[in-house]
Amino acid sequence: MVKQTQTMTTSEWKIMRVIWTLGEATSRQVIRVMVQKTDWSPSTIKTLITRLQAKGYLTDNGASRDRLYLPTVAEHEAMTATLSRTFHAMCAMCVGQALVDVLATTPLSKHDITQLQDTLQTKYTQAPDRIACDCMPHQQEEIAHHDK
Q: In the chain, where are the structural domains located?
């Protein structure tokens, strides 16, 4: 798998979701799906596919007609990497509450919830009482915006 160094935009994620679902796809197939889901033109969709190739998220079979696009990264891997980058960019002290807020509004299966409970129970035994703010060097935990 190619290691992607650039993040995907929301629009690129939409394209990748179609290709991940199909496993591989021609631009014609992607366009057919995306015109049903969005108001994008075929040229916009082709531009997004080209950008995803340039970023290393897609490769193709090299055919001149009916080129077949294949993902270079698994969907789960891309999702995990994106979430990790996002959480690492946030204040460590605020990530827990952000997770709580997102989980409260995210549809989850019973299986997902059981996995989350198991993971949280395991983490609980070694969790500190409080996570320190890491926004600035040598910052004190008593920062007003974090104590809300």
A: 10-71, 91-146
